[in-house]
Fold this sequence. Notes:
By secondary structure, the chain is mainly α. The chain contains 9 helices and no strands.
Amino acid sequence: MTEAAAEIPNATVRPKLEPASPGALFLTFLKLGAATTFGDTTALVQRELVERRRWLGEPALRSLQGLSRIAPGLPPINLAVAVGRRLGGTRGAVAAVLATLAVPVLLAGAAGIAYAATGLHVPSLDAGTKSPGASSFLTGLAAASAGMAFASGFGGLRRIGISPGHVAIILLMAGAMMLLHWPFALVVLLAMPLSLGHEIATGRKKPTDG
């Protein structure tokens, strides 16, 4: 993060608004793809793309992340396509997607080869919830992933500003998913006009980042 932004807690990191090379995109998404193998990368994406590389502003990143989650396909791949295309054109998108897939594909291939060669069998993991140890381990990973996602989301809201209307929309979305068990895509589609209407009604002007 820049020194000026570090001095002001609510400051928005200003993007460079410069094209990114396919090589730089590949290296960045190689790191993100490796992290995706082990859990949620929301906080890491924020740090790499907004604070470290300064390729995107916070509002632009949140928009691309939202679209990547409701579009068909895997969210990490969708995000790689969107960010790569925005920053480096077609070559940037290809580089970002290949980098995102590289580490997971290599690890999955190595695990498959090892399994076939050694006949390795892990009853506790194969049994899933039948094993208290494996169940606790997987539950802990899920809790950690959810915590990272919440921390990144609320941190972003703190930086770009939040109003009572935003809080109400967040609570409605959380209630629809957690209590009514509505699909995420449906909740987002219904929340989008609410959020847009709120912004139009309040006349808020958010910073642009190209």
